[in-house]
Amino acid sequence: MDCYYCIVGTAEDPVAELCVLDARDDGAALAGALRVAEDVAGWERVDIYAGERAVGRVERAAATPKLPLAA
Fold it and tell me: How buried is residue 68: exposed, middle or buried, by Cβ count under 10 Å (0-12/13-18/19+)?
């Protein structure tokens, strides 16, 4: 049985965090990976795997500008 793990990346470090997940299925792995990512300052993306199988990727939404771009 393959284990789930995630790789959290930031702008400066594509592998800022590598973590094995305690998950029984893909949905639980995705939720666990997001909890791990929230502990990494400036995370931009998290890739989730079950062994060598890619389960998914979550990318942080870009912040919306607070000021108008044009008047």
Answer: exposed
The pTM for the full model equals 0.81
DSSP category for residue 30: H
Are the beta carbons of 8 and 19 closer than 8 angstroms?
A: yes
Instruction: Say how far residue 6 (Cα) sits from the centre of its chain.
Output: 7
Q: Dump pLDDT digits (tens) for 29-71.
A: 999 999 999 999 999 999 999 999 999 999 988 655 566 666 5
Residue positions counted in the chain? 71
Residue 34 and residue 59: Cα distance in Å, rounded?
10
Element of type H or E holding 21: strand 17-21
